[in-house]
Amino acid sequence: QEKESWLEESSTMHDWVVWCKSKKGAEEIRPFELSGKEIFSNYDETKSKEEKNKKNGSKKKAHRGQSVRYRSWWKQGNIKMAVSEDHASCWVHKDLTVTTKQIQALLTAAKASGGKDECQVRLTGIEREYWMGTEIGRLGGYGFRGTVTAGDGSNQKGGKMGAGYVNLRKKRKRQQRKVGREEEGSSSNRPELAAFVLALRGTPVTNPMLYLCDNQALLKAVKRWVGEGGKATLVGAPDADILLEAIEELRKRTTAGAATFLVKVKAHRGEPANEEADIQADKAISGKDVPTEWHDRTNRAVFTWQEPRRKGGTVSYEDRKSTWNSGVRKAIRRGSAEEEVRKHRDRVTGAWKQISKQRRRVDVSYDPSMVTALQHGAWMDEEGFKKPCIREKKKRGTSTSLSTVHGE
Q1: What is the C-alpha separation between 228 and 40, in angstroms, rounded?
Q2: What is the per-residue DSSP string for 170-225?
Q3: Which of 46, 122, 260, 273 is the most exposed place for a label (fewest CB within 10 A)?
């Protein structure tokens, strides 16, 4: 019904723009094509690239951009983009003049390869209804009479950490920092706390401040110092160097009579300030001119271990390091459990060897094929135990078969 209503209205308009799928061959003429003109299409360009790849023996498809949102994105607020399976084209009224610069801008948008959609808050027209119905809109964030900021931290593989913060109303007011001391291990909490400090620095101490973050640990760390309880101490705090600066900045704001609100938001759910802060944190790590702060080492012991990662039915090990924390404790417990499993396997393997000798079915000391099977753990399954033994014997030119060992 909306489509029919628009087609009726567009018949008397000359300033409409239609973004649609490119036609592939002799398809039916669409109504807007009768009074419009196509100003660009990336169908011919990507087609030529795919034909070139095919000619060179490559199965790689031409990149068509990430200009499509996932199905039902609006239910979750997910702004992650999907790779478009269709070619795009743009149509305007035939009497509308379009400059080369405008066409180039549209073509650039069609080829966009960013992983996220742009989040721009527009509190006018129909978009106001959407933004005021979001999590921050319902909390009154977009109407907050003060400075609305957001920060985020990034902890990438290799121990690199970065922090960034943005001002929702002043898009150009943002900061990035690399977070140091990765020699003692990395965590997501450290750059998150650093982003909060950057936001405090960039906000005048007399202005009320609303800070949006997606890290619950940050809120807990700051909450301990509300009211300056007797148990509040920096002793044992893993990121005491950053937390000390955050507490000092909050003290200045409290003395000046300015309110500071910290609000937890869901990560990667389309909240504009938080998404932009996430981008800034990632750029902080890769940026060459971004300065590094909070890099002074402590005198704490550093533990190193390998963390198992399971993906697609395979297990890989990732090198980890950290000062004493719950992760180190967990790694020690896991290592102890793995050692007990190894000892148990050794005991069971020894029992199989002893049984085999007693039954005089196979003498392990003179049969290398059975030793090989035992070393590979095949003894845990009777049928699986026989097969590798027979296979090894065939390799050695022996046709002797093994019978199943049964206990009495």
Answers
A1: 63
A2: -TT-EEEEEE--GGG---SHHHHHHHHHHHHHTS-TTS-EEEEES-HHHHHHHHTT
A3: 122
Amino acid at 310: R
Statement: residue 358 has pLDDT above 60: no
Name the packing angle between helices 216-223 and 189-201 (round to 10°).
60
Distance (Å) of CA 54 to CA 49, 51, 87, 197: 9, 5, 18, 53
Specify the pLDDT at position 364. 46
For residue 163, give the nearest of 143, 180, 148, 147 by alpha carbon.
180
Which DSSP state fits 299?
S
Where do we find the tokens 């000798």?
A: 357
Task: Say if residue 402's pLDDT is above 50.
Answer: no
Count of CB atoms situated within 10 Å of the CB of 277: 30
Q: Do 146 and 210 touch, CB atoms closer than 8 A?
A: yes
pLDDT of residue 162: 93
Cα–Cα distance, 67 to 78 (Å, whole number): 14
Question: Is residue 196 scored above 50 in pLDDT?
Answer: yes
Question: For 35-98, where are the alpha helices, taking DSSP H only?
Answer: 43-55, 73-76
Q: For residue 142, is pLDDT > 50?
A: yes
Is 92 within 8 Å of 39 (Cβ atoms)? yes
**Which residues make Cβ contacts (< 8 Å) with residue 303, sequence separation at least 6?**
321, 322, 323, 324, 328, 331
State how far the Cα of 104 lies from the Cα of 38, in Å rounded to an integer.
14
> In a 3-state reduction of DSSP, which class is residue 259?
coil
Return phi, psi of residue 403, to 5°: -100, 155
**CA dist list (Å): 195 to 235, 345, 407:** 22, 49, 66
Give the pair of three-digit tokens for residue 288. 């060459």
Q: What is the mean pLDDT of residues 140-149?
A: 89
